[in-house]
Specification:
- There is one protein chain.
- By secondary structure, the protein is of the alpha/beta class.
- Among the domains are: 237 residues, Amidase signature (AS) domain (Amidase signature (AS) enzymes); 59 residues, no CATH class.
- The longest helix has 21 residues.
- The relative contact order is 0.13.
Length: 484
C-alpha cells in the first residue's frame, strides 16, 4: 500500500477507477500513514476521521453508480487559511482560535464537488506571515527529511503532508513565495497561478468574515502535489470566476514538447546571491530541457532592475500584511518608519515604509509595477518560460527568534538577511504571472532543491507542461521517493 500512497494523485485515481482499491481503503491507509508520521512532523493539525470515512463511502457509492467526479475518493487536506465547513480556520493566530466557518471557501467547494475526500487542515505560521511553519496554537511543523529543519512557510504544513504521503493534494496560498518556497524545501510541485485565476473567497487573511469577491492584491490560491499532472488537474477544477458553473477555460500551452520551447535561464544574481546547489539545480533543469531539444539561453533577461522591482514589491507586500495585523502591532511598524530615510532599502526599512505606505511610495510602486509588467510582456513575446531559483537557499534550520528582521540565512557560507527568501518570488507575484516550483535535484546533504518556472500571464498550463517534462527527465529529486 505504501507504493500507492507514495504515488501521485493521478495514479491513485486510476486505481480507484479500476476498483483495485476502494476509497474507504485508500483513506484508511492514508490515516495509518498519518498516525505513523504526523506525531513527529506535525503537518496536519486537525483531522476529522469520521467525516473522511463518510466522504469515502459516498465516493464508493458514486463509483458503483457510475457518477464519480474527477477527484473522486482522493484524500485531500487544506491549508489552515481556507474556510472548510466543519473545521476551524485559524490562520495560525490565537485571535482566530474560535473561528469555525459554516461553509467552504469557493476553491475548497470546487474540490469537494469533484469528489475529493477532504479530511484535515495543515499547519501555517501565525497570520500566515512567516517563511517557517510554527505558531502558539499548534506548534512547529518539521521538514519530512530532517526534523531539525523547517518545511518552509506559509504553506509548510501542506508541503510536508504531500511530501510525506500523508495527503495526496493540498490547496495553498502565496504572496511571498508561500507555495513555491515550501514546495522547493520539500521536493514537491507547487503552482502560484496567474493572479485572480483561482478565487481566494474564503481565505484568511483578510480577517474572518471579510470574504472578498476579488482576490486581494498579489494574493493567490493554488495547489501543491507530488506531480505536475496533479497540479494541472486541480487547477482545471479550482480556476474560474466565483460564479463559474464548470471547469474553467485555461489557455493552451504554447509548446507541448521540448523541441520548439524557448527557455531563458536566470540562475543567480549579484543583488540576491544563490546557494551553489540551488543555482546548479536551475542549470541542471535548463540543460535537461536543452538536451531534449529546447532552445535555451543563459543570458536573456527581462529589461528590468531587480533591486528596484523588489523595493516596490516589498513595499506593497508589507502594506498588505500590515493591514491584517492588530492595530497596536501595525502602529508600532508605522512609528518605526521615522527611523529610516525615504529611500532606504533594508528589509526593516521596507517593512516600516510599507506599513506606512504614503502617496510618494505608492506612486513608486505603481510606476515600477507598470514598467515591470511591460518588460515581462515584451520578454515573453520571444520566450516561453524563464527558469529561476525558487529561493536563494534550501530548507533552513528552525529559527523562532522573535525579531524576524534580525534572523539570517546562510548562502554559500555568507550571512544574508532572512527576508532574502522572498527575492526570487517577487517577479511573478508583483506582476501577477504564473510560477511553478518543481523539484530537480537533491543536495549532497540530502535536501531537495527545485526550479521556478515563470511564464506569461495566463500561461499557467505552459508552466505545468514544462514542470511535467522535468519530472520525467529528473525523477530522482521528487518526494517521497527521496524520503526514508
Amino acid at each position: 500500500m505504501i507504493g500507492l500512497l507514495a504515488a501521485d494523485g493521478t495514479a491513485q485515481l486510476a486505481a480507484l477507477r479500476a476498483r483495485t482499491i476502494s476509497a474507504h481503503e485508500l483513506f484508511a491507509a492514508t490515516l495509518a500513514r498519518l498516525d505513523a508520521l504526523n506525531p513527529s512532523l506535525n503537518a496536519l493539525i486537525e483531522v476529522d476521521r469520521e467525516a473522511g470515512f463518510r466522504a469515502a463511502a459516498a465516493s464508493d457509492a458514486r463509483f458503483a453508480a457510475g457518477t464519480a467526479g474527477l477527484l473522486e475518493g482522493l484524500p485531500v487536506s487544506i491549508k489552515d487559511c481556507f474556510d472548510v465547513a466543519g473545521f476551524g480556520n485559524r490562520a495560525g493566530a490565537g485571535a482566530y482560535a474560535d473561528h469555525r466557518p459554516s461553509e467552504d471557501a469557493i476553491a475548497v467547494a470546487r474540490l469537494r464537488a469533484a469528489g475529493a475526500v477532504i479530511f484535515g487542515k495543515s499547519n501555517v505560521p501565525a497570520f500566515a506571515g512567516d517563511f517557517q511553519t510554527y505558531n502558539r496554537l499548534f506548534g512547529t511543523t518539521n521538514a519530512p527529511f530532517d526534523l531539525a529543519r523547517s518545511p518552509g512557510g506559509s504553506s509548510g504544513g501542506a508541503a510536508c503532508a504531500i511530501a510525506s504521503a500523508m495527503s495526496t493534494l493540498e490547496l495553498g496560498s502565496d504572496i511571498g513565495g508561500s507555495i513555491r518556497w515550501p514546495a522547493h524545501c520539500c521536493g514537491i510541485y507547487g503552482l502560484k497561478p496567474t493572479w485572480d485565476l483561482v478565487p481566494t473567497f474564503g481565505h484568511v487573511p483578510p480577517a474572518p468574515g471579510m470574504r472578498l469577491r476579488q482576490s486581494a492584491d498579489m494574493v493567490v490560491a493554488g495547489p501543491l502535489a507530488r506531480s505536475a499532472r496533479d497540479l494541472a488537474l486541480a487547477l482545471k477544477l479550482v480556476a474560474g470566476p466565483l460564479n463559474a458553473a464548470g471547469p474553467a477555460f485555461l489557455s493552451p500551452p504554447r509548446c507541448s514538447s521540448p523541441k520548439g520551447l524557448r527557455i531563458a535561464v536566470w540562475p543567480d544574481d549579484a543583488f540576491s546571491p544563490v546557494e551553489a546547489t540551488v543555482r546548479d539545480g536551475v542549470v541542471l533543469a535548463a540543460r535537461a530541457l536543452a538536451q531534449a531539444g529546447a532552445d535555451v539561453d543563459d543570458h536573456a533577461r527581462p529589461a528590468l532592475d531587480f533591486a528596484g522591482l523588489y523595493e516596490a514589491y516589498a513595499l506593497l507586500l508589507h502594506a498588505i500584511t500590515a493591514s491584517g495585523l492588530p492595530e497596536a502591532a501595525r502602529n508600532r511598524l508605522i512609528a518605526m518608519a521615522d527611523n529610516f530615510g525615504p529611500g532606504e532599502r533594508s528589509h526593516a526599512a521596507l517593512q516600516a515604509r510599507g506599513a506606512r505606505l504614503n502617496a510618494a511610495d505608492y506612486a513608486l510602486v505603481q510606476s515600477r509595477r507598470k514598467a515591470a509588467k511591460a518588460a515581462f510582456a515584451a520578454f515573453f513575446e520571444n520566450w516561453d518560460a524563464l527558469l529561476l531559483p525558487p529561493a536563494p537557499c534550501t530548507a533552513i534550520p528552525h529559527d523562532h527568534s522573535p525579531d524576524m528582521m534580525a534572523r539570517t540565512i546562510s548562502v554559500n557560507g555568507s550571512v544574508r538577511p532572512y527576508f532574502d527568501i522572498t527575492h526570487w518570488a517577487s517577479f511573478a507575484t508583483f506582476c501577477g504571472l504564473p510560477a511553478c516550483s518543481a523539484p530537480v535535484t537533491m543536495t549532497p546533504e540530502g535536501r531537495p532543491s527545485g526550479v521556478q518556472i515563470i511564464c506569461a500571464a495566463g500561461q499557467d498550463r505552459q508552466a505545468l507542461v514544462i514542470a511535467a517534462m522535468l519530472g520525467e527527465m529528473l525523477p530522482s529529486a521528487q518526494a517521497p521517493a527521496s524520503l526514508p
